Amino acid sequence: MTAVLEAHGLTKRFKDVTALADVSFSIDGPGVYGVLGRNGAGKTTLMNLLTGQDFPTSGTARLAGLDPATGSHAFGAIAFIKESQAYPEGYKGRHVLKAASGIFPRWDDAYAAQLIEDFGAPLDRHMKKLSRGQRSAVGAVVALASRAEVTLLDEPYAGLDAVARQLFYDRLLTDFAEHPRVILMSTHLIDEAADLFQRVLVIDKGRLVIDQDADELRGAAVRLVGPAAQVDRLVGSREVLHRETLGGTAAVTVDGADDAFKAEAVAAGLELAPVSLQQLIVRRTGVQSTEEISA
Ligand SMILES: Nc1ncnc2c1ncn2[C@@H]1O[C@H](COP(=O)(O)OP(=O)(O)OP(=O)(O)O)[C@@H](O)[C@H]1O
């Protein structure tokens, strides 16, 4: 089977900056996939390479088995929505939507009209004069109503307020259930968007450091709180992502916590709390820390 999106040893250097280093992965079928990472991690670079907006220094990117820059992909099969989208001079929201309806064969006019109302996307003002949130609103309509087989979203809703962002997540999940497709979305707002993703790719300083099923990842770490000696004994040689102590009490975030370990912790009377996807990623991609908190 031909992968829908594929990277093999994908590397991009800008003079002395390595934006992406030896990234390999394969996305084989419909799903909502998260590309997560800190500022400057390489998320936009990855999306630019996957859509042929830029060329790799080495390695290969493939979109539906073809080179994204030179392959003859089906017209309108790919949508790439990004915050920094440039529009032709004089374009208003309605021009953007009209153009999109001509490009994407699965464009749904009725759905677009509903989304325009939901997001309050202004149609009669020049794109250049819109606020960041208003531009994002137009982008969100295109992102969803295009129903492209492969949709790449680079922080598409970054300018939207919290209410509109929640609406975007709800609409995306509902529409995806009815029209499954490959949606690859980058975001900083990990906890907010966490429930959308079935698989998560985390990039740190250009390297792909996590490529894992989101549910597996969510259950992989726990926070244990209890008497320090007891916590440490139970943790043993497991990887500690974070440790805080207050007097004789320790709070330790442990990676690789399986069901047996969790049951043992509960049986030992230790407090056990789940670790959110955001906390886990921050811990795995941040500096491992040990804190002594003075009372
Ligand atoms: N055209 C360019 N010229 C030089 N350096 C670049 C260029 N584009 C990106 N970079 C550098 O490559 C690295 C990765 O940038 P990229 O935009 O891919 O990160 P990002 O994960 O999308 O960041 P953010 O979350 O802040 O948008 C950064 O160090 C950035 O400064």
UniProtKB/TrEMBL annotation:
A GO molecular-function annotation: ATP binding
A Pfam family recorded for this sequence: ABC_tran
Coiled-coil boundaries: none
Superkingdom of the source species: Bacteria
Domain ABC transporter: residue ranges: 5-230
Keywords per UniProt: ATP-binding, Nucleotide-binding
Protein name per the record: ABC transporter ATP-binding protein
Gene source species: Demequina zhanjiangensis
